[in-house]
Amino acid sequence: MTVELLILLVVIVTALAFDFTNGFHDTANAMATSIATGALRPKIAVALSAVLNLVGAFLSVAVAATVAEGIVRLDAVSGHELLIIVYAGLVGGILWNLLTWLFGLPSSSSHALFGGLIGATLASLGWSGVVWNGAGGGVLYKIILPALLSPVIAGMVSALGTWSVYRITRGADPGKVTTGFRWGQIGSASLVSLAHGTNDAQKTMGVIFLALVAHGTVTADTQIPIWVIAACAFAIAAGTYLGGWRIIRTLGKGLVEIESPQGFSAESASAAIILTSANFGLPLSTTQTTTGAILGTGLGRGAEVRWAVMGRMAVAWLLTLPAAGIVGAVCWSLAHYIGGLAGVLVVFALLAGLAGLMYRRSLRDQVSSHNVNDPAPPSPGATPAPSEPRAAYRTPAGEEA
What we know:
This is Phosphate transporter. Keywords: Membrane, Phosphate transport, Transmembrane, Transmembrane helix, Transport. The chain is mostly helical. The chain has helices at 3-37, 42-56, 62-69, 79-102, 109-125, 138-168, 174-199, 201-215, 226-242, 245-254, 260-279, 286-301, 307-338, 340-362. The protein has one domain (3-365). The chain is elongated.
């Protein structure tokens, strides 16, 4: 086995590790509101989301093509150098995912990956190595512009939907309305999970494809191999089933107090926008889209919005691309200047060490399916505000559990 092949295997394993973190980091996008309103039990919610993420990953590869061809100028770099760029970008994305998960912040896994790749490319090739714009779109039009527009559009659609729902049902029996929309949430949350699989799993497919191009296993014009699609689908599904409980709590309880009609409106708006973007090959941030939709439900209902929580999320969004980019650039520099397999292994050891430290830190204030609906503290280690005793869980049919 050659050194280049060993490096390729390390890159693929790291890519699947990123896909796994993407799964548990973004579970909240689909299931936070359904868990918060009691439409689904927490464990059932993440299991359903995992299955639908798996199915969604096989539906399209349009987004994967954008990731593979829309960030790094493939005609400017190849071979070992491209492998190191991809590897460093992945490490930047993973570390940002883990840090924001630790703080319970629903930041964008997509932008963490793109930021890492852009940072590593800038460190390696300079400004000209990144596809900023062009006939096919580039970073500005396919990443930054959708990032700015998606939460705004999702919020507007969700606010209108929420206002309409409460307007239409204002004379109906509240119990029947709640029960009906809880059942509706099962369908709308499932659709978001399916949409998430069609969008997010493909980003890792695109990255692995880049690595294969760099190694010479495939050419830039080759179709993405089926084993890459399957591996990414199972990795994101496994991460989803683990459940990103810290972020689920923030989205479900930290931003707006959500009722079942609001949850249905938020999920429906998110699914429509994410599926539309996947159809056009736009690697949209599902996190920002969902957060915008949840915020819109609060505005549409006239409920209290916790703007301090929204402010922390917005800061995380602004920092994602540059922070992941800095980590990607540093990791590329380490791997490049140490050189060869030794450089790759040093960066891998750094990744494993920092990931272990963040995991140990998370054990001080664990969040699980048992306390996910408790109020979210402002930061790790903070004492949650006292809350009213929670009512018994009821299934969509209204039966107490």
